[in-house]
Task: structure prediction
Amino acid sequence: MGEKREKSLTERLYYQDSYLKEFKARILQKVKINNRPAVILDRTAFYPTSGGQPYDKGIIQDIPVVEVVEENDNILHILGGELKEEPNREVVGKIDWERRFDHMQQHSGQHILSGALMKIGGLETLSFHLGEGVCTLDVAKDQFTEGEVRDVEECANAIVWENRPIKCYLVEGTEELKKLNLRKIPQREGKIRIVEVEGFDLSACGGTHCRASGEIGLIKITQKEKRGENIRLEFICGKRAWEDYFGKHERIKGIARRLTVKDTELGEVIERMLEEKKEEEKKLKELKEKLLDYEAREIIKESSWQENDKGEKIEIIKKLFEGKDFAEVRELGQKIIQLKDRVVVLFGVKEGKGVKIIFACSYGLNYDLNALVREAGKFIEGRGGGTYHLAQAGGKKAEGIEEALDFALVNLENFTPKQPL
Result:
């Protein structure tokens, strides 16, 4: 951040009371953070990004607090504009309570979920992140079944429904810490802040938390993902969980209404629809195959004959398609060389502003269509390639496609593999 800070020790009011929404403080220093105005106060209720929990937002006076960061003993409030008040003046800060309480629900929910993981499966939480939409935690486990997810959720939510008190207090000294049954022993020394879910979980934590587990509302694991040797669980708590349920419930009701069935019948109905879709796709594929076969035989009738260098007659089909899907034209060419033993297909397709060519020949013929399509492609300012028996190119010069096909027809005998097939 560059700028020199005065040594200070900001009193952290959120440690004393996570429910404090408004406070008064004195400006210690006005600074710049990456050319953005910021202030250091003698006391603050704004939580800085720390321990997997994001920063608080709100206002100081009437200026938005857009980010809060911790630097040594300083808590820096990055602002959306300049404060008119100078150092040593008193200001009023107000927390964005909706954001703060959401973070409290998620963080307290994480402690209970981590406690449930330890109790049910002996699994230690390796890391935790509180995101804008979902929260994640990682555990050292190579797989996590749906049954295990349900067991952990059931255990965690039972603690929520019991509305157990959540207490925060400071402990100092290794011996005092050893007396506590902490889920994980902290590495740092000095005063350690402990968050206790009564009779269930004890953890070292500096975050903001609910007063009782009932305020968390609901804990729901929404996703599990393999991450190397670990499993990452995505979860949501409180209002986020309600909004997720509300949204999904509305979508389910909407789908059930459109299908004119009860929402409880959706699973059975969708399974039946998928089976019917599979059958229809099978029938459609058979019909398309028949249509392709018919179309190929009709196009074969338009073929002409040409003698090769050995005096053998080769059937040639040269055709330009407009507005037809290139994938269908490609299938058509492949079908023709399946039907005929000694045939060469020279197809062109106009698609919007671009053009494509595709050349194919029976496998018994000795032509290098890969080399031929590269040369013919120059007339459409295109590039491409393929194999001896099937090659294609695409270009942007639509007016050159007739020349490309004519070139291929006239010069076909000049393009044979160096080594006969």
